[in-house]
Amino acid sequence: MLVAVLLTTACGGGDDGSSAAPTTTDSTVNTTSSTTTTTVAPRTVALGETFSLSVGQSVTVAGEGLTVTYVELLSESRCRPGQQCLTAGEATISVTASKQGMAPATLTLGSAPTPPRYAGFRVQLENLSFSRPPAARLRVTKT
After folding, report:
1. What is the pTM of this model?
2. Can you give the residue ranges of every domain in the chain?
């Protein structure tokens, strides 16, 4: 009970005219989340084709048996459109590459001059949108 009171006070739930703080009966807060997971087969792209992915989406490279999945945005320090910045900044994302008969690999993509390799392929980040989460434009080529 003391923890809930201290948290309410520390979070601005005092008598400053703001909205009333929620009441709790114990120090445990339970959150219920309703998430629906839908499995969608990856679309197919040609080797060397530039394609877009959102977080959680996958593509399979035609005739190569390679699947690339956009996992997450790892870091973001880019200068947003309309802002004046001293540097352009940088962003990095994580993708998983997998090919039948091989262990999958997590690749970090960003502004590195040489894209990472997996199973004789290079996966390159061409562009990253400013949406949240950002959509990635990628390209897979052979090494």
Report:
1. 0.69
2. 43-142
